[in-house]
Amino acid sequence: MSKVKTFLGEVKHELKETTWPTKEAMRKNTLTVFGVMAFFGVFFYAVDSVITFLLNLV
């Protein structure tokens, strides 16, 4: 039980030292992630469509 208490105390200490991102930073990072996901979704859809079209020509 002593190890668990020590562990939880260390976790609490680390959480106090953590620098959390601001609301604006989180918004920017979230939009970046969704933008990259959308870009790669469209990119891979286009590549897949071109490959399918070329294979249907054969």
Task: Indicate the structural class.
Answer: mainly alpha
Q: Count the beta strands.
A: 0
- The chain-level mean pLDDT equals 96
Shape: elongated
| Portion of residues within helices | over 70%
The proportion of residues in beta strands is under 5%
**SS field, number of helical segments:** 2
Q: Major sheet, described briefly? A: none
Q: Round the Cα radius of gyration to an integer and report it.
A: 23 Å
Q: What distance separates the N and C termini? A: 69 Å
List the uncertain runs: none
Order of helices and strands: HH
Transmembrane segments: 31-55
Family: Belongs to the SecE/SEC61-gamma family.
Organism: Alkalibacterium putridalgicola
Subcellular location: Cell membrane; Membrane
Write the layout of secondary structure elements.
Elements: H1 2-17, H2 23-57
How is this structure best described in words?
The structure is a single chain. The protein has 58 residues and is mainly α. Helix content is 88%, strand content 0%. It has two helices and no strands. The longest helix has 35 residues. The model has no long low-confidence stretch (mean pLDDT 96). It is found in: Cell membrane; Membrane. Belongs to the SecE/SEC61-gamma family.
Summarize the entry for a quick read.
This protein is mainly alpha-helical and 58 residues long. It has helices spanning 2-17, 23-57.
List keywords for this structure.
single chain; 58 residues; mainly alpha; elongated; transmembrane; transmembrane helix; protein transport; cell membrane; translocation
